[in-house]
Structure formats: C-alpha cells, structure tokens
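USER:
Try writing one entry.

ASSISTANT:
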Amino acid sequence: METDGQRSGLFWDMLEGRVAWPPAAELMGWELMEVDPEKGTIEVAFQAGEEFTNPAGVVQGGFLAAMLDDTMGPALMAMLPDSKLAPTLDLHVQYLRPARTGRLTGRGRVVQRGHEVCFLAGELLGSDGRVVAVATATARIQRLP
C-alpha cells in the first residue's frame, strides 16, 4: 500500500521505513492492505508457514492470537500522534475453525477511543475467506518511553 508520506507517528514511521519493523511482525509476514485512520479500520495480511503449525497440522492458536493483536493494535496506532503508543492490556480470542497455512487476512477496528483506554475488535480470515478467529482487546494510550 502506498502512503502519502505526510503522516507521522510510530505506525507511519514503520511504513515509511524510518523505524524498523518489530521482529514479530516480520516473522508473521505482516503486510498492510488498507488503513483508514479517520474511521479506525485496517486490513492486513499474514503468511502462516509450516513452522506455525501444531501436531494436528493447523496453525497453532497462539500465532492466531498474535496475528489478531497485530491487526487491532495498528488500527489504533494509525490514529495516534508521534509521542504515543498503545500497548494491549487485555486480549480475548475465540477460535471458530482450524486455520490452514498460507495467507490469512486480518480486519481490525477501533470500537471506542477514549483519552487513555480504547476498545478494539478484529477478525482473522483464512485463504478461503471464512472467519477462523475473532477477538476483542483493550489498549491503553500512553507516551512513548
């Protein structure tokens, strides 16, 4: 996705290459598809490799939770000014069906943004377009250290 180069903040700095991507995002193959900071929505893609599978041959739930967290968090981060970040305080994940390896799509949104506490929601879709997991999260806006 192309950015306008006019925005700033940690999220936008990573997109523009001014700040390195977190290793976890790189491991999961995080890719921005679409973001609307005014609406607080985002769509991202991940690449789940064989190394993400459990003994049953499907993507282990912890990786799905991480992908959902790395979907919802950036939806909020795209809205924040330079000096702020928003770590996740609480994450609830519901697994709906097994996730196969390959491309997974995350859709996240800011449900409510307060001055400090924000509520987020997201879903993760398999390559067939079916929802494999959903999540809600609470994040706290704070100053960068």
